[in-house]
Design goal:
Blueprint lengths: L5 H9 L3 E3 L9 E3 L3 E4 L9 H8 L4 E4 L3 H9 L12 H12 L3 E8 L2 E11 L2 E9 L4 H15 L4 E3 L5 H4 L4 E4 H11 L55 H8 L4 H12 L1
Parallel strand pairs: 7-8
Antiparallel strand pairs: 1-2, 3-9, 4-5, 5-6, 6-7
InterPro entries: Acyl_CoA_acyltransferase, Leu/Phe-tRNA_Trfase, Leu/Phe-tRNA_Trfase_C
Protein name: Leucyl/phenylalanyl-tRNA--protein transferase
Function: Functions in the N-end rule pathway of protein degradation where it conjugates Leu, Phe and, less efficiently, Met from aminoacyl-tRNAs to the N-termini of proteins containing an N-terminal arginine or lysine.
Length: 269
């Protein structure tokens, strides 16, 4: 894809297509628009009781956009049961450039000064396109997903795109929709202006939390079809009822980041 740059990639996302590669060492990149897309509606995002307890306990320091390239590299690394990944070096460079342009973001889980899990994706107006995730501690990528959804709810996003449906996504309320329905939802989302930092400069979700030692070491990330590691899906309705920046600041006085994230998600339901 000689001459294809980050702005061309943004145009592709606006048309509902995204890049993939057959292997990390394969320099070829191709674009796909699946017949069916996996989706997680933002207003019906499901958090199990066990995961909610973990999120409230703030076992990780959750940060945003402090180690974007590290997250991409961790997602691109091979692991148990996943010898190849779809993130080759041309795709890696494109996402790093999108991050520099303010259109790609990471949500990171840190523990003891170590990056132990996280995710990244692309932001375009009212749509967020989830790309990949990784986890080196139990529940790290799931906690990152909860914090991402809370951030999207607060920022007025309308669509969270996961590309493919998996059993892993189903636990969060994911559903699968036809291509035509996906494009309808995408067009609706692109009419909105999502704000990834919609909680304001004193963003309580960006402050992180104390990192406990309760997590159990696990390897790898959720695996999608064709070895693509991801966590995401699409959302079909606006995230109404989100806390304003002022209300979020007041809530921060009594709630930790995890509890605040869960409150934001509950208000959108």
């Amino acid at each position: 894809m000689h001459g294809f740059d980050a702005r061309d990639l943004l145009d592709c996302y606006a048309r509902g297509v995204f890049p993939m590669a057959d292997a990390r060492e394969d320099a070829s990149v191709f674009l796909i628009d699946p017949e069916r897309r996996g989706v997680i509606p933002l207003d019906r995002f499901h958090v199990s009781r066990r995961l909610a307890r973990t999120v409230r306990g703030d076992p990780f320091e959750v940060r945003t956009d402090t180690a974007f390239h590290e997250v991409v590299l961790a997602c691109a690394a091979s692991g148990p049961g996943r010898t190849e990944t779809w993130i080759n070096r041309p795709i890696e460079r494109l996402y790093v450039r999108l991050h520099e342009l303010g259109h790609a973001h990471s949500v990171e889980c840190w523990q003891g000064g170590e990056l132990v899990g996280g995710l990244y994706g692309v932001s375009l107006r009212g749509a967020f396109f989830g790309e990949s995730m990784f986890s080196r501690r139990r529940d790290a990528s799931k906690v990152a997903l909860v914090h991402l959804v809370a951030r999207l709810v607060a920022g007025g996003y309308r669509l969270l795109d996961a590309q493919f449906m998996t059993e892993h996504l189903a636990q969060f309320g994911a559903e699968e929709i036809p291509r035509a329905e996906y494009h309808r939802r995408l067009a609706w989302a692109l009419k909105a202006e999502g704000d990834f930092y919609g909680l304001g400069d004193s963003d309580p979700l960006a402050l992180g939390a104390g990192a406990g030692d309760a997590s159990v070491e696990t390897a790898g990330a959720a695996t999608l079809a064709g070895g693509r590691s991801s966590i995401f899906g699409a959302a079909g309705s606006a995230a109404g009822g989100a806390l304003t920046a002022g209300a979020a600041g007041a809530a921060e006085a009594t709630l930790g980041p995890g509890a605040l994230a869960l409150q934001l998600i509950t208000q959108a339901s």
